[in-house]
Amino acid sequence: MAQFDVYINPQPGAREFVPYVIDVQSGLIDKLTTRLVLPLTRVGVNVGKLPVNLCPVVEISGETLSLQPHLAAPIAARLLKKPVISLRHRASEISAALDAVISGF
Q: 91-96: long-range contacts at Cβ-Cβ below 8 A with a sequence spacing of 24 or more?
C-alpha cells in the first residue's frame, strides 16, 4: 500500500456520497493492520462554501470530488483492495489540508 493511493470506499452503504477514500498513512508504519484514510466526497451545491485549503477538489474518473480531511478515520488495511489512482502528485496539497485540520493553517 502506498501513501496517497485512492481506493473504492469499502463501505457499500456510504459509496453514494463517499465513493473513494485516500490512504494518507506514512509508509514508515506499514506494519500496522489499519490505514488512516480521508474520504473523497461528491461535490454538491455548497462547493463554494468549502475552504479550499481544507477541502481541495480532485477529479477521479471524470468525477469532481472534495477531500474531507476533518473526517479522517482508520480502516482495516485488508478492506482496501486494488488502488484506483494515485494522488501522489497532489501530496503537498493533501498534507496541507491535514495540517489545516491539526493546526488551523
A: 91/3, 91/4, 93/56, 94/4, 94/22, 94/24, 94/38, 94/56, 94/67, 94/69, 96/53
